[in-house]
Amino acid sequence: MSSDKLISWTTADIIAATSGKLVSGDMKHAFSRVFIDSRQATDDGVFVAITGETHDGHTFLSEVVDQGARGLVVDQEKVKQLPLADWRTTGLVCIAVADTTRALGDMAAFNRQRSGVSVVGITGSNGKTTTRQFTATVLSQRYSTLVTAGNFNNEIGLPLTLLGLDPGHQWAVLELGTNNPGEIARLTDICSPDIAVITNIGTAHLEGLGSIEGVAREKGSILNGLRTTGKAVLNADDPRVLQLARRVRNEVVLYGQSADAVVRASDVYESQTSVSFVLSLPGGTSSIRLNSPGRFMVANALAAAAVGYSLELSISTIKAGLEAFTPVGGRLNILHTANGIHIIDDTYNANPDSMRAALETLKKMRAGSRGVFVAGDMLELGDQAPSLHSAIGAAAAQSGISRLYARGDFADRVASGARGEGLPAEHTMIGSRREIIADLTGWLQPGDWLLVKGSRGMAMEQVVQAIKAWGEEISG
Questions:
Q1: Which distant-in-sequence residues (6+ apart) come within 8 Å of 293 by Cβ?
Q2: Matching CATH topology for 9-100 and 116-323?
Q3: Which CATH architecture has domain 333-475?
């Protein structure tokens, strides 16, 4: 089992990991943790001063030192501005590096290698977070498992996860996200996966990646960083993923519902609270019931089952892991207000494919009841954003919703797309979160189903929170 004690660091370890230069302090000083948030400063930690889009960690150096931190990793360009004479007197460790963000990743890679942990790396346009959680619950049935928290899937978040390794961890399940070319390759270099999972390739992050072909190249780069003995777990139901499978030198394990899949699902059945299917492996079959609705959940579960199969876990162990899964916050969470409104909270993030999947779930779950869709913008879609938002509006109308609310720069496109497919103009509304909430609370009735979804930056969870609070107030 894992312990509560992280793998410790010495000054020499940090320099070995980062190729940095010691400008203050001694080589033998020991640290128990690495942090980048000045509010987490402790006397046993080393602070890496990250320069981000909105904050520069170097502006907090004096603050973290005052709070007791005894180690700093800084940009070499900032060294001349630092009170090195004072720090040398007190013995504070300061290491200068060419790039602090890269140094953080290099420290994470160093930690991964010395820990002896094995790694599952998961990427894809949709389903990464849910697949990550499924995989973690499956592996946790047998192994002490570290898993990415929240949306820690970028060049800062993934290293922070690996820096959370303790001596007892046997596996780490990591999510690899991307906005621009080269990011998956860098994250793969850091985590060096033993198993690489690609869930699918779709129209996400087109602004940075340019085209669906660009998305495929970027996601596929995780396969280039697989260890020699590593395995690729790939979605057989996605044609673009299958194309990637043909050029992989490593062993490939295909999952899905197609005949190509080694790990397969059949007899899928959906209810308002769950989805069930028969899991087939080369060694046998088992009935699975997932604690979450939505047919698309099956693909995420199959990916995790394929990871378990790759590690020769028994089908009963895989079943136990899949059925122990609990939904990630904001990922198709079903909420019921005290006054009888049913909310599908899928506010964690959004792109065209996940929007369509959520609309299909709304259609299935509401049965004959009224359905309402509150849509926030899908971000990072580049030049295709207008047409893709229009298409989602059309899909919403085709799904039979009774009312559409849209918010964001492309709200008019969503609304016009819905009107073009027959949703009356008086049943659509464009507005701010506050305006939408006000209209919803005057229109919703007991038994209605409400889907709320949008990209992370749209903060659509505020709509969910407001409707929940309104429901409690009304019923009270």
A1: 270, 271, 272, 273, 274, 275, 332, 334, 361, 364, 365
A2: no
A3: Alpha-Beta Complex (3.90)
Q: What is the pTM of this model?
A: 0.86
Q: Are 210 and 381 in contact (CB under 8 A)?
A: no
**Along the 476 residues of the chain, how does pLDDT read in single tens digits?**
445 689 999 999 999 999 999 999 999 999 999 999 998 888 889 999 999 888 899 999 999 999 989 999 999 999 999 999 999 999 999 999 999 999 999 999 999 999 999 999 999 998 899 999 999 999 999 999 999 887 889 999 999 999 999 999 999 999 999 888 999 999 999 999 999 999 999 877 777 787 889 889 999 999 999 999 999 999 999 999 999 998 899 999 999 999 989 999 999 998 888 999 999 999 899 999 999 888 989 999 999 999 999 999 999 999 999 999 988 788 888 999 999 999 999 998 999 999 999 999 999 999 889 999 999 999 999 999 999 999 999 999 999 999 999 999 999 999 999 999 999 999 999 999 999 999 999 999 999 999 999 999 999 999 999 999 998 876 55
CATH superfamily of 116-323: Mur-like, catalytic domain (3.40.1190.10)
- Domain extent listing, the chain: 9-100, 116-323, 333-475
Q: Which CATH superfamily is domain 9-100 in?
A: MurE/MurF, N-terminal domain (3.40.1390.10)
Q: What torsion, rounded to 10 degrees, do the Cα atoms 34, 39, 41, 46 define?
A: 30
Query: How many angstroms separate the CA atoms of 187 and 169, rounded?
Result: 20
